[in-house]
Amino acid sequence: MDIAIIGAGTCGLYLAWKLSQAGHKVVVFEKKKTIAEIGQKPCSSLISERLGEFIPLNDSLIENKIDTCFLHFPRKTITLSIKPTHFAIDRLNLVKILFGLARKAGAEILFGQTIKKIPQGFDRVIGCDGALSQVREQLGLRQPLFRLGLQVFQDKRDNSNYVETWPIKAGFFWKIPRGERTEYGAIGPLKTIKKDFDEFLSRNFSRAALEKSYIKSALIPQGLHLPRQQNITLCGDAAGLTKPWSGGGVIWGLTAAEILLKNFPDFQKYRQETQALFKTRFLKAKLTLPFVYSLGFHFPYFLPSKISIDNDLLQRAGGG
């Protein structure tokens, strides 16, 4: 089949690689002009080791390994044992690896292509064009809920095996040790998170350090939306496939991509199976997150001091 993929991010390049391997003629349309620009997208890229089930891993990808998260509520800190281990990934190298695999398999990747209408003349079209997906807009689908992610780096070497998070109303701040540098970030409501994050940084950095810092931002979509068309579908951020508790979307997006590949070219089966898997995850998060936050801020003594979790929520992990 002739296949158009809109967007050369993680999901777009992964699908281009696998569909080209299967013998299809794949053309990828990417609005950015270079691979370097794609790799500069603000993203923490703290990804579970499940990434190795999809993509060959090497040392150049992994900046640090994380197995613990400290969740700092005002009156209690919860220790989360993260299962499986997470990697702080070099996003640019990840994109380069996928780009090379897709090209080697025969995919044609076109840069500088701003797509305002769904391409014609293809048997299947897959929108992997991110939070503000033009494919989703052209299909008239309901927009997902948007949150804002913020990111800034400090030139401070840190190889700790843990991340730290500070919950706030409808979001949280984080600190991720990335080996050669340290990342600070935030996720929350569009209207308030920038002000909250500025105050957080002011409490933790000197004025001189802040003046040297450059804060990057990105929209984070949340809420699964897939079309009913037979020949057009969405995957990854374009479909709103990000985890409600963290905003991460790489493993969820790649999992959906595998469902698409398994059912290809039947987009309706892909839609049904993806909804069956992820709708329950969204519902569980919708019910659980407000409850946990309420306990953490108002009744922290009801929360255990140590918890073991599967951060991808793709299988159960034992608790304690």
Describe this structure in words.
There is one protein chain. The chain is built from 8 helices and 14 strands. It has 320 residues and is of the alpha/beta class. The strands form 2 sheets. Strands 3, 4, 5, 8, 9, 10, 11, 12 and 14 form a 9-stranded mixed β-sheet that branches. It has a 5-stranded parallel β-sheet with strand order 6-2-1-7-13. The longest helix is centred in the C-terminal third of the chain and has 32 residues, at 267-298. 38% of the residues are buried.
Describe the SSE topology.
Elements: E1 2-6, H1 10-21, E2 25-29, H2 35-39, E3 46-48, E4 62-73, E5 76-89, H3 91-105, E6 108-110, E7 124-127, H4 134-138, E8 145-154, E9 162-168, E10 171-177, E11 182-188, H5 193-204, H6 207-211, E12 216-222, E13 232-234, H7 250-263, H8 267-298, E14 306-310
Parallel strand pairs: 1-2, 1-7, 2-6, 4-9, 5-14, 7-13
Antiparallel strand pairs: 3-5, 4-5, 8-11, 8-12, 9-10, 10-11
Helix pairs in contact: 1-3, 1-7, 7-8
